[in-house]
Amino acid sequence: MKALLAKFMPYKGIGLYIGEREIAVSKVARTPLGNVELESHSQSYEPEQFADVVGELLAKVEAGGKHPYPVAVGIPARRVFYSTRPLPTGKESGSAESVLREVMQSPNVCIDELAVQVVKGRYAKRSLASVASCRRDYLLDLLEVLQQAGVQPFRTEPAPLALLRSANDKRRIRKSRPALRLFLGDGEALAVAVAGPVCVFWKSFKLVAGNEQAALRAAIRSCQTLIGRFGIDAPLDVALVHGREDLREVLTGEAFSKQVGVPVVWCSEPGLTGSSAAYGLALGCVQEQPGDAINLTQSMTPQPTIWQIFPWSEVSVQVALVLCMALFLFGHARHVQQAVVPVNLELAKRAWAANKSQADLNKEQRELLQQVEAVKKFVSTRVRWTEYTHDVAERLPEKSTLTLFQGMCELEDGGKKPKKLFTVRAEAPIDSNGTMPTQVDDFLTSLRGDPLLKRDFPNVELTDIKTTQPARKEESATAIFTVLCVPKATAAPAPKAAAAGGHK
Amino acid sequence: MTNTARGRRSADGDKEKKHPLASLSNPTHLRVFLTATVLAVAYLGFYSPLSSQFDRSRQEFDAQLRRFVVISDIERLREQYKLFKGRLSPKPDANEWVHYLLDGVRQYPLKVSMLDPDKVRDVGPYKAVVLRVDLEGSLADIHKFINWLETNERLIRIDALSIQPIRNKNGALMASFTIVGMMG
User: Fold this and answer.
1) Which of A184, A210, A425, A470 could cross-link A404 (Cys pair, CB 3.0–4.6 Å)?
2) What is the pLDDT of residue A168?
3) Distance CA A256, CA A260 (A)
4) Among A172, A165, A264, A175, which Cα is nearest to A220's?
5) Chain A residues 190-249 within an 8 A CB cutoff of chain B
6) CA dihedral defined by A497, A498, A501, A502, rounded to 10 degrees?
7) What is the pLDDT of residues A4-58, one digit of tens each?
């Protein structure tokens, strides 16, 4: 996944380490998941083959081709003078040459033939100035060879700084305490003292087979002594040994730590090899800005023009996004513009409304609505009584007489609840044996089944029934009964009734 | 002398006077500058004018649509109004209604026992006349009169009616009405 992602990432860098007998090159891509080394090559050379080997290796990693990736060049530790000194409080600036003079403590040393670079850093609330210098002729020759290969270096720095970066990528240390990193090679080793982010000094020494432990012990002790001279008061916190797995057991033993007076930790990578230095150089291209680290050829190469460093791909992506956004907005605005066209066409057909303002139209709409609603209510809430006069008369049982036909369906007036009821009173003769006439039940049943009453007055109740004695003997007694029909009870009073029932 | 050495000298010479755009030689600064420029161009060149145009179009569309909805509603309401416009009495006059009702009663053999105009009521924007009428007559005639009221060309409703036989008058009925008539 990481390797696949690295292929498509635009942030790539190339590190070119030029050793005394070997040249190594490494290509690194920076991905959101971490740094990935895409390819690495190394080749030994004779002095007369130098230009050819550099060109060949750079061609392998496609430096200076269609995609001009930044190339950082590393030079061997012994070609560079490097030192660090604390800056007095308040004196934060000064030319590289003056710092070099102060470090060398010689007013008459000729520094015209040297390329000098100073990088400032902070450790334990103190400003430190690290100065690096190299012979200008050597660098000019190097630049000429690179120019032939079509490459202008992004940065030229000492290889120990690249190894330090590479080691930091593999294993980090506490930034608050000084530490010593030891990079071991086959017959040689390099000790680099660091204080936080600042490389204080480095020291190369031989590793004679069978005598490695003594050489390392001497180197660590001397570094412990030396670091105080560079303005670092605290003792070394840890010594990290990189490379040479064959020495692991000896170096990580308790006895060795006691001898050197500092804990020793062993890491497999990076060893003192050209490839490790090239990897660290490539990391510097993708992780750091040009001014963040020492660049010995900064004053010898013209500043790249804006067009040379112009991020065409990023700008084209941004422009494409902007154009997409513009197209989206334009399309949206056009869609709304087109949507209004049919509405305008419909409005144009209604000439009567053309000269009317929206307020006039709203007023007319409001007035018309009130009129229509009033009439709708007037008509829809009335009861057609002709249907009832006809229907009730038909349902009246034989020998019965209707004595009252009363209907009420008031028009709603303000907040007052309108009355709505229907009352029928009828007389039916009582049999000679005095039993209540069945006509009463028949009439009641008939009314309850009446579709008209079901619609308007569904609650049909017999409210009273009276008997009257005849005035004359030949006449029979009659039963007078009243039927009250009312609409269904509205929903509002129901809870009250329910509550009353609940209390009971 | 190599090109790079010449480049170095020219670089040294230019060191003193820094061009305002010199900081753009730093790739990070250049990227920030370009991103800011692209954003500014996008905002001022596209987003701002297009979004204003979009807002204007949207407002115009909303206004026209609102107008169209109101006009359509007015047309619908006018159609409904036409249906009952002719059924409203020509003028809001209770006396005119009394005459109209008496003319209606005269069509049937009914005797007017009482005709009492009540207080005029408000029905929405309209006025409604309330008339209390007592009539004497047969059930058939009273039925016909009720039918005349309910199928009248004017908007009339019977709020209350009561029909009961008159004592000592065989077959004659007394019908009491509360009639509400809509006035224009």
Assistant:
1) A425
2) 87
3) 6
4) A264
5) none
6) -140
7) 776 777 678 899 999 888 999 999 888 878 888 888 999 998 888 888 888 888 8
Cα→Cα distances A212→A185, A203, A246, A380, Å: 11, 15, 11, 113
**A251, A294 contact by CB (below 8 A):** no
Q: In this structure, how many other beta carbons lie within 10 angstroms of the beta carbon of residue A472?
A: 5
3-state secondary structure B68-110: HHHHHHHHHHHHHHHHHHCCCECCCCHHHHHHHHHHHHHCCCC
Looking at A126-273, list the stretches that DSSP marks H as alpha helix, in order from N- to C-terminal side.
Answer: 136-148, 159-170, 212-226, 248-251, 254-260
Tokens of A379: 């008509």
The list of chain A residues with pLDDT below 50 reads 493-504
Least Cα separation, residue A200 to chain B (angstroms): 27
**Contact at CB, A404 and B163, closer than 8 angstroms:** yes
Nearest CA to A121 out of A109, A134, A131 is that of A131
CA A366 to chain centre: 51
Of B21, B77, B158, the CB nearest to A385: B158
Chain B residues touching residue A337 (CB < 8 angstroms): 57
CA distance A7 to A99: 43
List the alpha helices (DSSP H) in A247-357. 248-251, 254-260, 274-287, 306-309, 312-349
CB-based contact A336 B57, cutoff 8 Å: yes
A154/A150 Cα distance (integer angstroms): 13
Average pLDDT on B63-75 reads: 94
How far is residue A496's CA from residue A481's CA, in Å, rounded to a whole number? 31
Helix and strand totals (H; E) in chain B: 5, 5
Beta-carbon separation of B161 and A304 below 8 A: no
Q: What pLDDT sits at residue B39?
A: 93
Across the interface, of A289, A362, A403, the residue whose CB is closest to B26 is A289
Cα separation, A385 vs A143, whole angstroms: 116
In angstroms, the CA A482 to CA A110 distance is 136
**Whose CA is closest to B176, among B136, B124, B128, B117?**
B136
Cross-strand bridge partners of residue A255 = none
Q: What is the distance between the alpha carbons of residues B10 and A145, in angstroms, rounded to a whole number?
A: 21
Count of C-beta atoms within a 10 Å radius of residue A28: 28
* Local structure of A267: helix, strand or coil: strand
Q: How far is B140 from chain A (nearest CA, A)?
A: 10
Pairing assessment for the beta strands A12-18 and A22-31 based on DSSP bridges = antiparallel
Rounded Cα distance between A389 and A167, Å, is 110
Burial class (CB in 10 A: 0-12, 13-18, 19+), A192: buried
Please state the separation of Cα A34 from the chain's center in Å.
19
Please report, as a single letter, which amino acid is at residue A94.
G
CA distances (Å), origin A230, targets A63, A177, A234: 39, 15, 11
Contact yes or no for A407 and B160 at CB 8 A = yes
Token readout for A53 is: 């080997």
DSSP summary character for residue A192:
E
Residues of B whose CB is below 8 A from A349: none
pTM: 0.54
For residue B16, give Cα distances in angstroms to A117, A118, B7, B12: 18, 18, 15, 8
Q: Could you tell me which of A279, A269, A289 has the C-alpha nearest to residue A61?
A: A279
Beta strands in A401-495 (DSSP E): 401-409, 420-429, 459-468, 478-486
Helix runs in A356-406, H state only: 358-380, 385-395
Which of these, A240, A233, A270, lies nearest to A257 by C-alpha position? A240
